[in-house]
Design a protein that fits this description.
The structure is a homodimer.
Chain A: E1 3-4, H1 16-21, E2 26-30, E3 33-38, H2 42-51, E4 54-57, E5 63-67, H3 71-78, E6 91-93, E7 96-97, E8 103-105, E9 108-113, E10 116-120, H4 126-136, E11 142-144, E12 149-154, H5 158-166, E13 178-183, E14 186-191, E15 200-205, H6 211-221, E16 228-230, H7 234-239, H8 275-284, E17 288-295, E18 307-311, E19 314-325, E20 330-338, E21 347-352, E22 355-361
């Protein structure tokens, strides 16, 4: 693997000093910001995440803040998910689509108040789309990127650790809800959410100068829980079927192709810019869709381009994420497969960089 | 330095196989695509670039294509540069600004025809801003990212090499103009441009399947010129005063702060979205501006955050790019300095990660 060249453009985070002190070995770049990918090894990080608790620098989940009288209207223009019943204190996973129904991002919308929202984004400059729409439609709303850097606490001991630092009230936070807490005079929302299936929280740090103080406080409080610096783990997230924008789907895909139809209320999401384009696919269903796929054989390299999925000599799909799972003893993978070959149990072949491999479509993700 | 984790999201390019075969040592990520940063070493790459000819994979300069009756109107909405006299066959460096005059990108606009433009972008998803504006203003224009991957040929022998492959007509291309050529049946524009001061061309490869064929043809034709795989060189680009969006300026800066006032015709750029916001700064001038700065002393690490520039105990600016120049025997640097301290000859101090360093504001860049 090659090295990554440091520059200001690949932004450091309020927690970078902690990440470096913990011995980060590799990064990816996400929203033009450093996101750690490996500390000890993907496998060691994976086992630790499933058994203990980790602190994750996910500052790269930048926020797009909408503030003003038209904030709610603008938010609904962005997504086919019906937001009318959403209350302050709730988080919604919202596909964001353009006028053709193509996905521009798959963020979490955080409703702070009727006239104030954060969109906690995946890897694309969603800020620019939202600013362009707000400007073009002359909406009465401020759109910018605030000083907010999420720090995730993930793993089976996450609740105990966060309760030790913020008090027992964190135990009352329900999944995809948030509540407000204080840390050394800083008000911050804490949500029960995160990019793993091991449970945990995302702490939205609202003052970058406080980042390392909170990092250190969590590390100190977790000393007797074997707390470690960690990061989203490629094996664990594929086992859990957590999609990655830019890997598993792009602007070429509709939410329905991504299996996100349950987050689309296309009939009632009045005002959504992509609504007309999505109405037909919402009714008739997509012709290709994301599926869990098991790949057999020797350990494969990372997926850095879409691997063709073949039925004989016909290309019927592609693999976009894959990793060898120590717990399941196979390669867990995410792929997009055509309707003719997407039924569970269908046997296919994947053209990997190491040659063709047998594969099978699964009924469900692993965890 | 840490490693970079491969994934489909950090897109490979049509030339990646050539880059890897040439022994690339490190990358940055630019527009969610791999951009090589070092082959032999920054210094060896630098000397070679200044004396010979290099082939650069700059596919990460993605294109935003505007096509349709409103393409020209939309292009003018994006920039304060007056485009009325621009002809097909010309390239213009165009600051792109939002409604507050903040820079969203500093691309090169390529006018293919009255109703067809490419915007060859720096590192931000400008596509999303342009799509949002086109949608909000209901313009009659298609906006997308076409299959176009620029390959640059840079260095003093660039003209000889490109003429060997495409014929002597390339010698007639004037600076920031382009003309159409053929390569194995593929039509492609070649512009006299590039992100170095050593002269050369950018070849807009219009079919990704042809990428390696062209790469190999250039390598073969240049065998007797010591042609090598190369990349934008941090030392050479700072010497030449070539700014880097995301490093030297961000959306917080106006074009005037970036010394790009000569590309702003704010009075006559009717329709530019940021025009109102820029009128005052265009008249009165900015209160801080980019300056060439010489930093003294031992070799410094790469700039991965803005280094404070001090006058005594007062912060008067920041360094955003710096590198030790073998040819000039000092650290060449780019910084943003307040009006009170920006005169050439002003002596300042820079707070680097290695401690304070003496520095001086220069009259002009080095090359």
């Amino acid at each position: 693997m090659a090295l990554i060249s440091p520059s200001r453009r690949l932004r450091r985070t309020p927690f970078s000093k902690g990440v470096e002190a913990a011995g980060v070995k590799s990064y990816t770049v996400y929203n033009r910001m450093l996101l750690p990918t490996v500390f000890e090894s993907p496998e060691a990080d994976y086992h630790h995440l499933k058994n203990h608790v980790q602190i994750w620098d996910v500052s790269c989940e930048r926020q797009v803040e909408l503030r003003g009288p038209d904030a709610g209207r603008l938010m609904q223009m962005l997504t086919p998910r019906d937001l009318r019943r959403m209350l302050p204190g709730q988080c919604y996973y919202v596909p964001i689509v353009d006028e053709t129904g193509g996905m521009l991002n798959d963020p979490v919308a955080v409703k702070l108040a009727e006239d104030r929202w954060w969109i906690s984004i995946a890897d694309s400059d969603l800020l620019l789309w939202v600013k362009g729409i707000a400007n073009g439609y002359r909406l009465d709303v401020l759109v910018d990127e605030p000083d907010v850097s999420p720090l995730a606490v993930q793993g089976p001991k996450a609740e105990d650790l966060v309760a030790k630092v913020f008090g027992p009230r964190v135990r009352d936070i329900r999944f995809f809800r948030f509540d407000w807490f204080q840390f050394q005079g800083m008000d911050l929302p804490i949500a029960r959410s995160g990019y793993s299936k091991q449970g945990g929280f995302e702490i939205y740090v609202t003052d970058k100068r406080m980042g390392m103080k909170l990092w250190d406080a969590l590390m100190e409080a977790g000393a007797d829980m074997d707390v470690r610096a960690g990061c989203p783990n490629v094996i664990e997230r594929i086992e859990g079927g957590l999609l990655s924008y830019g890997n598993d789907m792009t602007e070429d895909n509709t939410p329905h192709e991504c299996g996100l139809g349950r987050f689309c209320d296309t009939a009632t999401a009045i005002g959504c810019i992509g609504r007309d384009a999505l109405l037909r696919v919402a009714k008739e269903g997509p012709v290709q869709q994301i599926r869990p796929i098991e790949i057999h054989g020797e350990k494969l390299p990372p997926v850095d381009y879409a691997w063709p999925v073949m039925a004989g000599t016909i290309r019927v799909g592609q693999i976009t994420s894959a990793a060898y799972s120590p717990d399941f003893g196979v390669h867990v993978a995410i792929g997009m497969v055509k309707i003719t070959h997407w039924d569970a149990g269908t046997e296919l072949e994947v053209n990997t960089p190491d040659g063709p491999r047998k594969a099978v479509v699964r009924e469900a993700f692993w965890a």
